[in-house]
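Dissemination and training. As part of the outreach component of the grant, students in the summer workshop were shown how a complex can be specified as a set of sequence lines and then modelled as a single object. The example used during the hands-on session is reproduced here so that future cohorts can follow it. Participants entered these lines:
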Amino acid sequence: MTAARTRWEGRLLVVGTGLIGTSLGLAARAAGADVLLADVDSRRVDLAVSLGAGRPAEDAVGSAAAADLMIIAAPPAAIGPIAEDAIQRDLAQTVSHVGSVQTQPQVYLETHGCPVSRFVGSHPIAGRELSGPAHADAGLFQDRPWVVCPTDATAEDATEMVLGLARACGAQPVLLDAGAHDRLFARLSHVPQLVASALAASLAELAPEGVALAGAGVRDTTRLADSEPEMWAEIAIANAGPVAAGIRAVAEPLLAVAAALEAHGDGHAAVRRLLEGGRTGRALLPGKHGGAPTVLAEVQVVVPDQPGALADLLAAVASERINLEDLRVDHSPEQQIGIAELVVSSAARDALVSALRGAGWTVTSGASTAL
Amino acid sequence: MTAARTRWEGRLLVVGTGLIGTSLGLAARAAGADVLLADVDSRRVDLAVSLGAGRPAEDAVGSAAAADLMIIAAPPAAIGPIAEDAIQRDLAQTVSHVGSVQTQPQVYLETHGCPVSRFVGSHPIAGRELSGPAHADAGLFQDRPWVVCPTDATAEDATEMVLGLARACGAQPVLLDAGAHDRLFARLSHVPQLVASALAASLAELAPEGVALAGAGVRDTTRLADSEPEMWAEIAIANAGPVAAGIRAVAEPLLAVAAALEAHGDGHAAVRRLLEGGRTGRALLPGKHGGAPTVLAEVQVVVPDQPGALADLLAAVASERINLEDLRVDHSPEQQIGIAELVVSSAARDALVSALRGAGWTVTSGASTAL
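and obtained this result:
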């Protein structure tokens, strides 16, 4: 069930019309807002306007308190200065942003002596490996968490203003202290990004025909390494302390294992400890729908590489009234064939395997696993 | 197209009836082989026999050259001693194994003065996060690479014997030097496993309600951390040198970035260099079917969490005659809803988005990306 969206009929000023800013304009307009759009690149404003995300801000800003709420959707380092200027010029009753780092802009304003009672940072957990207004969509925030980070100095109605916009965009607001947010997302997002990049970078010295033998494991583990370097470099710098600590929490145990392996001594115990720690940490990650980990089963099926084959397979699954918990498609090198991994509840596994085999599908394996 | 399997009508002795050994028995029997099964745990032999993977080896072994080919499908450290015993007792004309590490058993035999002309290691790249004979399947090796590692001392017909079995199982044999294999799979498999475990282990100190906000990025990056600790500890020990070097190639650049972030100096350049190196390495990973990376587009669609919804979506995709290159399903915490990420060629993106929207689906975003 998709959460019903509330109305939000104030005037919203969005500064920065990239993927997030433009999607925000679209979502807010759908909720009833009057949306003004600004960007240092006027072509991006034109594109966002043509997509229906709002109208250009030029005419409206300049007058005092032109907007009820201003959202800064700009790179991390730009948020503090833009917010300071907006507060000094009284451009909006409440000023917020949607950056991946919360402490830096808050501290910037406080150290510049800027009044912060009507400033409140936020962070919708939406969008990835995507950029630019052309990919914007009103549904980007639907059913996603949206972290809001008021301080003791924040006026209550400023916080409520941001919470209201988040709900109007279909998101699930979560209140968090800015420092807690930054420490948490260093571990959940910024460090995984850097670890994936470091692992992928280490492959660059291998022979290409060797790397062609890589399986799904290393591909999944390095998927984040496709992300845009400049944005992530700025995020890491803006959250330097927690990111550095998070890197050490991953890299130092790895180097201890390397040293143990090189010493030909207690290597087995050290490696095993690391692997068992990994299972413990992994068990904390949300299963489907954020609930406790459930025992699921994985069933692998050979799928011919032609339009409709995967749909036929899933139709066969659906005809058994079995709900797919997850699905992944893997491919063999050099062969026009794929392996679909169907994840279902363990209870449904046997029925699924026999139904698929009965319908002529090649089921290559199936295993129970805690996801 | 699934590769046609060749016949293989000799006598095969499989030692170790776990997932790989039992699957091998099933595949070889389907190709016409007489398969003998042995395991230190007689219950696993009974299960493998009941699954149709072969007959118990007790009666047949003991006589000289009882088998044409013996495959050891046992934990890494056990392979050398089992092979030595088999060669001394002349149990098979050719002795091979299917371990993840190639140098260790080869060196074990050579340092024990064992004749190695009829010993040749191999490594089918198949199966993961799965274990036990109950999950075995004759199709496990279908269209997967199968690395075979002869040395200068290996008799040509011994190598041919293993290549023939690999082809009979539907696999694609690849010849590699044992040392090259171990250095390559340290990077492609053993180190990604340890890195995923270290990253997942670092989450264990976070508050569970915080980890519940984790998105798909960290989940993908840590997926391998679900693997079985004892098996992977043995693999790391058996391939200690290349694994330690591979760990250093990942962890040392990460620590250099942490130091740069802590120094408040040249952090941006250091982080950006790491992220750009990651894109370079990632581009070497095989795209679909092992070919060069192609420009693909990702389209995200909201899918209600009910049986058949995903099948309906894929039927809508198929009715446009658009081929899915990849597919992933992501879920929002706490909400009974999923996001399906459809990966198609960039050329097909716009047609797909408009067709899906026309059919009433909520398309939340779509982006071009190099996969």
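Confidence is low (pLDDT under 50) at residues 288-294, 367-371 of chain A. Students were then asked to discuss how this feature might be tested experimentally.
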